[in-house]
Amino acid sequence: MNDRLDMLKKARDRMVEDRDAHARVLAAPFDRDKAERARTKFMEIQGLIDAIDRAIRGEHTA
Fold this sequence. Notes:
- By secondary structure, this protein is an all-alpha fold.
- The chain has one domain.
- The chain is 89% helix and 0% strand.
- The protein has helices at residues 3-27, 32-61.
């Protein structure tokens, strides 16, 4: 495995952990302010995970 692919996989793992933290807030008893912030961050991080996934696929084809 090349260094770039390894770095991308580590970054993805870290972002999944961050996303899961926001999912826990969304699953907790409802608090509007916390839920709105968590929802926004969850969506932002998921977009980043999707981008990293595309980069990983690009490394496999390169």
